[in-house]
Design the sequence.
């Protein structure tokens, strides 16, 4: 008989009611308060932008961040598709099924009680249940970490303007990394102003087709200033960040230097016959919120 | 680069006076429209009770709170957050919006394409860029959600907003063939090769 926990270690127990409350709070908070790293990203772009129209547009975006906080309002009308990342640390006890149900209940309550626009419809009938929920939505990604007695819940309201800027190409080994770079540059040109630049361009390299696209989403939604853990990936993101900002697309696609805050790359091992690349884009309203559950309590952040 | 204050609705001459690069502030009335609204109006043949002739429409689907209908509020809604969505998806509706409904101005983000530019030239219209994702600010320019139509499509209904100082907006596409987006896209295409060569991917 295997014990569920090490003798002597009291696991962190997280109740579904706490998850539901956190999911509701995080959805609303994410829609209203931009993370500090994104605010710093705006200040950096504003400092280096040389185009007059682009500077005016950046100033309006920065003003909007202040208006949203002062008036306790949403940064953007697009409440997005709700995504929750659940990061389960060691010695954590949670009813997984109840957790998924609690996240959906919290999402629906945020939508009805705030109220938020439900941006979620059935893919064929286009029927909106006005809960921001539907089949397989909220999107819930569950992973495990080595954090001791910690459960982290991250919320991302992913806007559609930038999500429609998603692209996958199953390149082959003979195409090399040069084709990966060309793909990213060409998709940024194709996306133009439609994805609400300045953006975070998320790039997935490697894996399977679905993993590659997931990597691009992870890359697009991680904090500014973070680096790809893989050294080759980190090199690629530095090169591509400079490249896309040399295209002149600028804020809102109206010209300028500030096309992207950054290009982020995430990598995974792939097959000897494969060279997949994916792009997923995050708009300038790069919203995130998080709740971290530990034995000391719940900490709300980004 | 001139600034124009337009009290809606406007005439063809007024819209043809707008040049790409000018700025505009709108007053009085603005209609909110979106994907489903236009799919139902133009693909399913539904008609609106609103007279859109000479008016401006904005590509939006707002966050709203239900309230009692009273006084000048015939919609039963008040604005929580009104912002702007990506226009490109609605490209094919520009000409019918102008031909059938008489719309003069489209407000959106990210721009429209060649077909819309042709419609603006042929029929007298313009595209005004609002800063996308700046919805908290944009909401302060909305005084009321006065009325609503096709509300079974909520949140993609057709909304009549009362506005005050809506702008400044940038004339990004005009009735004389001017498009800031086309200029930026051409410039990006021109720079592409040099960018790829620096990446060793030329």
Sequence:
């Amino acid at each position: 008989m295997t014990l569920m926990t090490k003798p002597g270690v009291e696991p962190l127990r997280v109740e579904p009611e706490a998850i539901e409350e956190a999911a509701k709070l995080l959805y609303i908070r994410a829609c209203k308060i931009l993370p500090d790293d994104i605010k710093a990203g705006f200040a950096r772009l504003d400092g280096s932008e040389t185009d007059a129209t682009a500077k005016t547009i950046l100033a309006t975006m920065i003003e909007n961040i202040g208006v949203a906080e002062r008036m306790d309002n949403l940064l953007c009308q697009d409440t997005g598709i709700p995504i929750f990342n659940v990061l389960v640390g060691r010695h954590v006890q949670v009813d997984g099924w109840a957790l998924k149900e609690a996240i959906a209940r919290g999402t629906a309550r945020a939508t009805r009680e705030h109220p938020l626009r439900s941006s979620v419809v059935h893919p064929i009938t286009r029927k909106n249940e006005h809960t921001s929920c539907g089949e397989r939505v909220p999107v819930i990604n569950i992973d495990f970490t080595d954090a001791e007695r910690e459960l982290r819940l991250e919320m991302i309201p992913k806007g559609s303007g930038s999500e429609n800027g998603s692209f996958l190409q199953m390149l082959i080994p003979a195409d090399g990394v040069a084709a990966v770079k060309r793909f990213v540059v060409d998709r940024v040109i194709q996306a133009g102003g439609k994805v609400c630049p300045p953006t975070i361009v998320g790039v997935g390299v490697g894996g399977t087709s679905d993993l590659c696209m997931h990597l691009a989403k992870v890359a697009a939604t991680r904090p500014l200033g973070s680096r790809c853990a893989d050294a080759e990936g980190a090199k690629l993101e530095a090169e591509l960040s400079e490249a896309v900002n040399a295209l002149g697309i600028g804020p809102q696609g109206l010209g300028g230097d500030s096309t992207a805050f950054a290009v982020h790359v995430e990598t995974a091992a792939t097959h000897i016959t494969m060279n997949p690349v994916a792009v997923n884009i995050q708009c300038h309203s790069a919203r995130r919120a998080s709740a971290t559950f530990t034995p000391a309590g719940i900490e709300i952040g980004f | 680069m001139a600034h124009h204050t337009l009290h809606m609705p406007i005439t063809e001459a007024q819209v043809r006076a707008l040049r790409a690069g000018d700025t505009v502030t709108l007053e009085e009335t603005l209609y909110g429209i979106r994907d489903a609204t236009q799919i139902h109006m133009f693909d399913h043949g539904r008609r609106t009770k609103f007279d859109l002739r000479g008016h401006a429409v904005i590509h939006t689907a707002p966050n709203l709170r239900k309230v009692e209908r009273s006084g000048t509020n015939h919609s039963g809604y008040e604005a929580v957050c009104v912002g702007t969505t990506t226009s490109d998806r609605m490209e094919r509706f520009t000409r019918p919006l102008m031909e059938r409904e008489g719309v003069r101005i489209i407000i959106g983000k990210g721009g429209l394409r060649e077909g819309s530019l042709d419609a603006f030239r042929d029929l007298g219209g313009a595209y005004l860029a609002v800063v996308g994702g700046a919805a908290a600010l944009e909401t302060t320019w909305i005084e009321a959600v006065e009325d609503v139509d096709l509300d079974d499509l909520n949140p993609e209904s057709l909304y009549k907003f009362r506005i005050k100082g809506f702008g400044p907006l940038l004339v990004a596409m005009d009735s004389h063939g001017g498009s800031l987006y086309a200029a930026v896209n051409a410039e990006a295409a021109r720079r592409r090769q040099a960018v790829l060569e620096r990446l060793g991917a030329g």
Q: What stands out?
A: Chain A is about 35% helix and 25% strand. Chain A touches chain B through 59 residues (CB under 8 Å). The radius of gyration of chain A is 20 Å. The helical segments of chain A are 16-32, 36-48, 52-70, 96-113, 160-163, 176-191, 209-220, 231-244.
